[in-house]
Amino acid sequence: MSPRKTIIDTDPGQDDAVAILQALASPEEIDVLGITAVAGNVPLALTQKNALIICELAGKPDTKVFSGCAAPLQRKLVTAEHVHGKTGLDGPTLPDPTMALQDQDAVDFIIDTLRSEDAGTVTLCALGPLTNLAAAFNKAPELVEKVQEIILMGGAYFEVGNITPAAEFNIYVDPEAADIVFKSGVPIVVMPLDVTHKALVTATRNDAFRALGTPVGIAVAEMTDFFERFDKEKYGSAGAPLHDPCVTAYLIDPDLFKGRHVNVEIETQSELTLGMTVADWWGVTDRKPNATFIGDLDADGFFSLLTERLARL
Question: Cα–Cα distance between 293 and 159 in angstroms, integer?
Fold first, then answer.
């Protein structure tokens, strides 16, 4: 099979960085047409800079990186420096990028790519708030049907919320954008906290990253060293969950994951449950299924794949 043409929409973030590295190390499966930055974990000025830093760390300076939306569609930006540090990539010491952003706006790049490529051949991988995707769908609704698939990290059901009691961060930051995307009719695969919390970087797994002995392996180990402090304190877990690499791992080996095709609706009105992903896991409504909601993964297989791919860089 030829590699899937993919746009990575992202708000790096250490786990975003690992996902990007995995994608750039996997050209047989993933043809990265471009990386589009969005505000989320940290403001846009930092997420776009971090995307450039990661491309250079990967040794892929020809990767096209685009700057996107600086704020949610209707709300003030909520960020997560308390998790990712003031830069979004706290942990390793990485040089400022020398490569430049593309002149084109990220939303226009998404639109132009969907317009120029054959229908059903472009996959959108969303690692942050869905603002860029929703803005593109609003601006050019006729192109929605050309998207092959959206694979996104976001939401939660059995694991409930990580930014509020009911909501996962990416969806909470821009619930209106998420609502547009989930109602778009595009085939969607969701990596919620229910599965990403099973992708834990234990000490042994992090030692395997560090043992690669490369700038990439050492940087990834230092990233997880930094942000695991938050998750270990919050959840009492054995390490930090690598949320976003689940998205790129699914592109490489979907058999690592298990889920159900169910209806998922986004709460946009309630102050109490704003941003909640209401997944009809048990099929108790007559609402039409619109997303494959992943609930489990082969964690050992996931980390074996990730370590092998990082070793290529």
Answer: 13
